[in-house]
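fwd from M.: "can u put these together and see what the complex looks like"

so here's what she sent:
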Amino acid sequence: MKQSLFPKYLYLINNGEEAVMSKKMFRKLGEVYAVLVCALTLNPVWALASEASASAPVPVDSDMAWWAWPLILLVVTFFMGIVAVLGGVGGGVLYVPIISGFFPFHLDFVRGTGLLVALSGALAAGPGLLKMNMASLRLAIPVALIASTMAIVGAMVGLALPTNIVQTLLGATILGIVVIMFTAKKSAIPEVKQADPLSSALRICGIYHEASSGQDINWCVHRTPLGLVTFILIGFMAGMFGLGAGWANVPVLNLMMGAPLKISVATSKFLLSITDTSAAWIYLNKGCVIPMMVVPSLIGIMLGSFVGVRILKVAKPTFIRWMVIGILAFAGIKALTKGLGIDLF
Amino acid sequence: MKELTVKMNSQASEEQLLYANILEKGMLIGLVMMFVTFALYVFGIMPAAIPVTEIANYWSQPVHEYLVAINDNFLHQEHLVTGWSWLSLIRKGDFLNFVPIAILSGVTIICYLRIVPGLFKRGDKAYAIMALAEAVILALAASGLLAVGH
């Protein structure tokens, strides 16, 4: 089923405006993010934020039946699965800020579960995408080597840092993702005048069949060294925060390296199965996995994704995109204030 | 040195298909096992090490405090349950659920190891070495040697 459904998802994304984000835009986003993070981490409010307040501000209601939270988790992740498909984002990027912000689970377990949520989605989609030759193994292998190594480092750093710092940085990152989603354009088939020497040496190129036009599209990539360096940061953040990294993979593969949008989206999804695997092992070995959280979350997200793909046929993508941006902004502010020990809402 | 040729057509390469097939099998086995083991756990068919009625009292704590608390109150193990030590508790419903999670997390290592011989055979040494390196890195992460704490 996933083989026949995924192309519709890709097609929807392909309807976006065709434009190439310039290097200037990436630089500007990087500067904004760096300033935001510095401002947050150097803020005097930081000193007042206790780890305890960031750990569990959502009290555990002892009167609730044991099955209540897993059931609520199932229902919430079901809707999250729908929104994730309609909004063209991975489950992990919604899961971690929302569940850590509004549920009683500690961030350590939320990150571990978030990685498994993103991993399962990638494992479910990966085989079909590879068989259809939409995901490119030749593009993924070098990128995954860097991203998965850095995801391990990110996971180790994330688990070593105090919770309030991770929570605050998570909030800043989610707000950064909102900015990226707000500003980033997509390019269905970017113009790559000449493949760079590294991608030529590695033969990172291919042909895919474009069903909408019936044409075979030749593709290759450029700026490979810059792209690979960027994946150092992406892998680190994926491991540190337990987020799937599709929000960053796609712009880098598509806009920076010049891979066609469909190849970028499919390869990004497949990439998560490798990047998130490495970080997931760190969390698993550290004990950050509770089956009573993981399984309802996976079932909810999967069922929601199946329903979401069906709704996709009639949904208005612009509205959904704005809704996802709104949800992420809300969850990002919540994570930020929670990390800083501010009880905003 | 044998010259490397890469077929340029819209079909997936041999390695890509091999990788996809192993990934698909591992994913299906892992997901089916996850449903089965969770049902055994949550419906009380297999007794849990930490009663389902108690787990909600612990999941709001940081992981180290959680591990100490469940060990003191329920598990009474010599060491905290980190790394692969959950294997010693596999007869308990909750810890049995780690088996499918480990399968889902581990199938990628098998995929990589499986494509390495074909890549070497075709003279695609750069990719063979990268695939081998990836398998080693993932195996290192899976080994538990890299776990650190707060």
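replying to her w this: Chain B is about 60% helix and 0% strand.
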